[in-house]
Q: What sequence folds into this?
């Protein structure tokens, strides 16, 4: 077991307010992933600006349009025409970040999503959005819902609300961490001769399939939770009136 390394190392010690924190493998790998995404976004932006709108897209531009259309269709089909325009950018961004983090293990990095310090903030952002949309569209109905079906269910409903970010973050973290640990054990314990071809099948499942699946699940649950909290069809009259004014203002512009 002495040859097994889970690639969690502290590279630099920093003192913040008397507390000691470390720049770890997760920070380095996450920085690499973000750098790759930033470069991709810059290249994509320049490609779109240089594109001729009178001609059919080809090559890299075709890939960009396919990705954007796929995300847009997914968000609109799950969140509806009212919420989808507001959240398609966030869903696209969080899905892209998670799937690239999950797939980074194929390139020798330790997936940042195998660290709970990465998955929990993502889940908390979603949690804040869920609560905000619930109060925005339901107003006091959001508070009233905590007492349904009867007053005695208040503690259960509160626990259910706060369980959302915990379940979202733990599901993603545990699945990616387990895959990372399995591959680390395989590379650390098996003979080098066996490692020439066999781990490829495991990478295909643990990194590609499981990584893409977990990114999709996180994005889908985010859309479902936000949509259910907003419940636009049963929104308060004031919220609907405000939304109609916003749409009318946009139409004039």
A:
């Amino acid at each position: 077991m002495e040859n097994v390394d889970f690639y969690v190392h502290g590279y630099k010690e920093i003192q913040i307010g008397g507390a000691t924190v470390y720049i770890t493998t997760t920070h380095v790998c996450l920085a690499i992933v973000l750098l790759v995404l930033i470069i991709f976004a810059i290249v994509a932006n320049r490609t779109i600006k240089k594109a001729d709108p009178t001609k059919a897209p080809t090559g890299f531009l075709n890939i960009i349009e396919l990705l954007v259309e796929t995300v847009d269709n997914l968000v609109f089909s799950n969140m509806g025409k009212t919420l989808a325009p507001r959240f398609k950018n966030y869903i696209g961004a969080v899905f892209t970040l998670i799937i690239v983090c999950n797939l980074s293990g194929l390139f020798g990095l330790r997936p940042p999503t195998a660290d709970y310090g990465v998955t929990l903030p993502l889940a908390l952002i979603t949690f804040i959005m869920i609560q905000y949309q619930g109060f925005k569209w339901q107003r006091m109905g959001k508070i009233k819902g905590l007492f349904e079906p009867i007053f005695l269910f208040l503690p259960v409903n509160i626990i259910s609300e706060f369980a959302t970010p915990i379940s979202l973050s733990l599901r993603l973290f545990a699945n990616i961490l387990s895959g990372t640990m399995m591959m680390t054990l395989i590379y650390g314990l098996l003979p080098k001769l066996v490692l020439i071809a066999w781990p490829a099948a495991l990478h295909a499942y643990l990194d590609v399939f499981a990584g893409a699946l977990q990114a999709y699940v996180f994005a889908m649950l985010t859309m479902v939770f936000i949509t259910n909290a907003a419940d636009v069809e049963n929104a308060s009259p004031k919220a609907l009136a405000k939304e109609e004014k916003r749409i009318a203002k946009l139409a004039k512009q």
Observations:
- The chain has a mean pLDDT of 83.
- Strands lie at 10-16, 19-24.
